[in-house]
Amino acid sequence: MNSTCPPFRIKVVEPIPVTTREIREAALQQAGYNLFRVPAQKVGIDLLTDSGTGAMSAAQWAHAFEADEAYAGAQSFQRFERTVRAITGMEQVLPVHQGRAGERIVFEVVVREGDLVPSNHAFDTTRANLERRGARVIDIPHPSSRDPLAPAPFKGDIDLERLEEILRTSTSRIPLVLITVTDNTGGGQPVQPSNVVAAARLCKQHGIPMWIDAARFAENAGLVLERDPESRGRSPREIARQIFDLADGALMSCKKDGMANIGGFVALRSRELYERLAEVTIATEGFVTYGGLAGRDLDAIATGLEEALDPGYLTHRLGQVRHLHASLTALGIPCVTPPGGHAVFVDAGALLPHIPADRFPGHSLALELYREAGIRSCEIGTLMFCGGKDPKPPDSELLRLALPRRVYETAHLDYVAAALGRIRGRARELPGYRILEGHGPLRHFTARLEPVPA
Ligand SMILES: Cc1ncc(COP(=O)(O)O)c(C=O)c1O
């Protein structure tokens, strides 16, 4: 099978809401020009996120049905724990209800006021959870990531020179270094194993733990397999394991490569730290064998984690992203290159040069795509990143088209590309936007805005 031919067939279907331009315009006004506030029944193709929006397999549903809902020590937890241990090689496993719950729990225990956390790119909730602890995050992505059009294969890498300098000279305490695989914020770009090897060596030299944000660990392995000559002939599971083996702990949102609609985990090696995390988990998430999840979620995730590492699935998944990227590029729409693992990132700053960053070109393009064709997407730029403390302007103003797993077909992706092609023809007419309400690092979720003619 080639990469656009799905390695699955459809068993259950869900109708897509059909709306008119008038309905969508009214929905935008009511939502304060914020797509997070638009009701899903007014969205045709929903590319807002790949998080928790995938289709579960028949095997996942079957295991979910068989699940054990015991409060403590359920068989579903044992299966979950066995799977996480086998994939990560980490003995201590705490389920949590989603990725950010794991962030909150780990940071509550290991992060203190005034700390500094270096990362290739901390995701927005990760940053917010660190800032809530009074810490500062410093993103040090590889220099190649600064040019969205440079065809560098591993733009998710951490900048090792900067990391070395920070570890050597920082006057703030550094409780951990966090490597996000793939780098969602930077375009879903992969991190190569040799970069993690070098980062782990530096962390070890300075006695600082290294953690992995593993939300898209399987997609990262798939992209490494395609792009890293040193990894040829290895399985996605082996590549993923090599990266986990280098880390002290992992944070995982199972709403991505857990192929589930909810869930997450914290995995780590230290029993002593596990005990401290367990205390916070019991107080705020639930007992350590369910962590805010139902047994059926634990079973669905255990199966999903295995399915995410299936080479046939990964070929199709990465092929879909590549297909959308190629279709847009052929229409002259600038996209972050090369394509990442879960989304295509359109360079909205380049497409709408008349809209300054503080009038949110990525957001403007997202709103127009919804108005034009009922497609929901998401800004990854100044609106998302500049509401927190010490805002650092992002290198680019992007529009993210995130592909839910196993949900849309090639024809849907072609519909998306055609809509953006039409918008490109009148890009100069698009307005900027101004915030009326909403502040803080997570303002993009709740803000209300209004158009400002460019
Ligand atoms: C890289 C990364 N880390 C953490 C999270 C947070 O996970 P969750 O949405 O499950 O809380 C996300 C969510 O999109 C993410 O992309």
**From the alpha-carbon coordinates, what is the Rg to the nearest angstrom?**
21 Å
How many E-type strands? 14
Tell me roughly what share of residues is in helical segments. Answer: 40-55%
CATH class wording of the largest domain: Alpha Beta
Helical element count?
Answer: 17
* Biggest beta-sheet profile: 5 strands, mixed
CATH topology of the largest domain: Aspartate Aminotransferase, domain 2
Bound molecules: pyridoxal-5'-phosphate
Q: In the CATH hierarchy, what is the architecture of the largest domain at level 2?
A: 3-Layer(aba) Sandwich
Low-confidence stretches: none
**What number of structural domains do the residues give?**
2
Shape: globular
The structural class is alpha/beta
Beta-strand content = 5-15%
* Terminal Cα span: 47 Å
